[in-house]
């Protein structure tokens, strides 16, 4: 088991003929992901990396039975792409695109409340269930299949760093997902924690947060209230100055709230083991999860 | 992107939101001319900088005559205004807003912001205007009214009524206030705003509702849809290095320390700054060269870091993964030679062909040291700079 993606995931890549779309289609195929279709309006009928290209997501779904979309389209077109995926009956849309206007995401998120589509991202590296399916841009080789730890993160390369440390400790992963660095996103820490709690293969969860918003605080309360599995936390940005956007659109301390310190405290108060030092995160996880490994 | 108060008020006026009569002034002469055109004294001179706390810092002053306008404008236009948001050096004042003085009866607070956790647009209002809303939230949260608007349905009259009745406004101003809320919402959605704030929104003795202050910020991701807003950009408000970095497509933020660092990805960059600090040194900056990280990005990153005089050593932390480390290492060497690098550099890289990458760095003849992991990288860099600046080694 794993969450959200596995051997049955059939991927359509929206924006497959772009540079990023094509490159990562190749890498996902190499990992063994079932990439069954691509979409670029006006390029239907072509092939890209051996994958048939369609003009619309609906057309791709009808022909190939795609159930998951991986989105690489440019920021101002991304809302349209997500809504198109939802309308075509896709169950999971993984949106890599960075720089989508917040107002677009507010509208999309509101619309998706009445849809069966689960959105991951935007501005994220995607999701991987090691050894089964990789729907994203993360390097597959650093992951260790077979579980039992789930990883949820707001960033990209920082996720690779922590996964690499887990793997070097001999700790495998059930599923690793980036929920994105934007202020308004789809799947939250809380949603993914809930899914990991239900997943029999997952024995513990590592959450990697950062400054801005209150997603970590909400996750902490949920962990205390609903989780039977151990949770370890890390929060980036202890040295981040207030009022400045630290690369990610959502990573900003505003009006004194959303600091790394307050998130770390909220996590600890709710029974989450927090590691403050990235250099020893792998070792810290080995300790904290030792009862379930 | 933040803009000045006078620019925000231009937008307000275009949408029919009442603002005091007045206009911007870039010189003492212009200030006098705007004041004289207003026809009566007193007038208010307000420093135009992006940082908040202008009033407390002495940046808002009343002038009762032409002579006072002259002397106050000349002192304001030659000052570096220090507020709690500017940092110690303050912000040089180059623009003023000269406005008609107003009698006021009541001060309100009103703002529109995207609420990231609710996924809606929030209207936040209070009858305790004129002070910072964070302070009101702390001291008397019961005086804050928050109403959420569904971004798909847009604003309905009941949203405005909930705000108006929640503030217990005098009946004479209700109609005007409701109209103002609708106009604010249109400004917000028409421009992809990330903040609209009026503090204070005042009620005058003759029961007019006027935006005495105006703060507007746009969502940077939305700017591409609003080319005309580019004219509001004020380069004087931007740090020169930060501006140069953004021209290269890099995310750079200047910090106080002496360890320059360059990292691929924002989360890892923040965590790397934290590591430097935890190792006993101080980061000189935040610099995210993007998740991919190419040789060109590394070269541009070097250029930015080396323009900062306080940098004593550089830490490069690249988690490539897909990226080949030999390619990256050649890029680092080439970039270092290109910019004439003469500082010690610790490179931590992860990806395929790590060994080959290390060999290239070691044989470059430059002071490029490699670290096996993030902890080692932070320890090496702290040893080079000898702990935090100002601390005894």
What integer value in Å does the Rg of chain B equal?
Answer: 26 Å
Integer average pLDDT of chain A: 96
Number of strands of chain A: 14
Report the portion of residues of chain B in β strands: 25-35%
User: What level of helicity do the residues of chain B show?
Assistant: 25-40%
Secondary-structure element string of chain B: HEHEEHEEEEEHEHHEEEHEEHEHEHEHEH
* Low-pLDDT regions of chain B: none
Query: What is the CATH architecture descriptor of the largest domain in chain B?
Result: 3-Layer(aba) Sandwich
- CATH top level of the largest domain in chain A is Alpha Beta
Task: Please tell me about this protein's structure.
The complex is a heterodimer of chains A (293) and B (393). Chain A has 293 residues and is of the alpha/beta class. Chain A contains nine helices and 14 strands. Chain A has two domains: 1-123, 3-Layer(aba) Sandwich (Rossmann fold), CATH 3.40.50.720; 138-293, Succinyl-CoA synthetase domains (Rossmann fold). In chain A, 33% of the residues lie in helices and 22% in strands. The longest helix of chain A is centred in the N-terminal third of the chain and has 13 residues, at 19-31. Chain B has three domains: 21-100, ATP-grasp fold, A domain (Dna Ligase, domain 1, 2-Layer Sandwich); 106-232, D-amino Acid Aminotransferase, Chain A, domain 1, CATH 3.30.470; 240-385, Succinyl-CoA synthetase domains (Rossmann fold). In chain B, 35% of the residues lie in helices and 25% in strands. In chain B, helix 5 (157-166) crosses helix 6 (171-190), helix 8 packs across helix 12 (374-385) and helix 9 (295-306) packs parallel to helix 10 (325-338). The longest helix of chain B is centred in the middle third of the chain and has 20 residues, at 171-190. Chain B is elongated, with a radius of gyration of 26 Å. The relative contact order of chain B is 0.09. At the A-B interface, helix 4 and helix 5 of A face helix 8, strand 16, strand 17 and helix 12 of B.
